[in-house]
Automatic annotation (TrEMBL):
GO molecular function terms noted in the UniProt entry: acyltransferase activity, transferring groups other than amino-acyl groups
Taxonomic source organism: Pseudoalteromonas citrea
PANTHER family xref list: ACETYLTRANSFERASE, ACETYLTRANSFERASE (GNAT) FAMILY PROTEIN
Domain N-acetyltransferase intervals: 1-148
CDD domains assigned to the protein according to its UniProt record, in alphabetical order: NAT_SF
Record-linked InterPro entries: Acyl_CoA_acyltransferase (IPR016181), GNAT_dom (IPR000182), N-acetyltrans/Recomb-assoc (IPR052564)
Name under which the protein is recorded: N-acetyltransferase domain-containing protein
Amino acid sequence: MEVRKVQEKDLVQVNLICIRSFEASIAGSLGCEGITTFIEIAKSSAFLKRMQQDNTILVAEDKQRIVAVIELKAGHHIAMFFVDPDFQNKGVGRALFNAILPHVRTDILTVSASLSSIDIYKKYGFKYAGEVGESAGLVYQPMELKLSSSERAV
């Protein structure tokens, strides 16, 4: 497995992983608005736009197949983090998470975790950072991880 920066040619596969993972673990707990919002955020064109901004997007690739994606917004917020359901619980998510840490530019890494992903973020050391919220139909738990200087970019 290789972890690398996303390329424009990867975006169709990235979209499919996001949608497949979302449908398997999150979509059932949301209404139509939340599902529509997520579909828009996960579109290849939306990823392309964010690639051209200040977001760092990494993918995990297995035998030339993209199997996971993580997106760091503005050097401090995990905006997307999805592992293909067939590759979950195999260390792929941990490898991607560890690979994004050097790109973090602050002492605190944040995430608006879907309710079904809270336990995963807890395993990575995240703590609750506020009450459950909702934005455009997406329900999330604010969480944060305090990083030492050796864990983040200098």
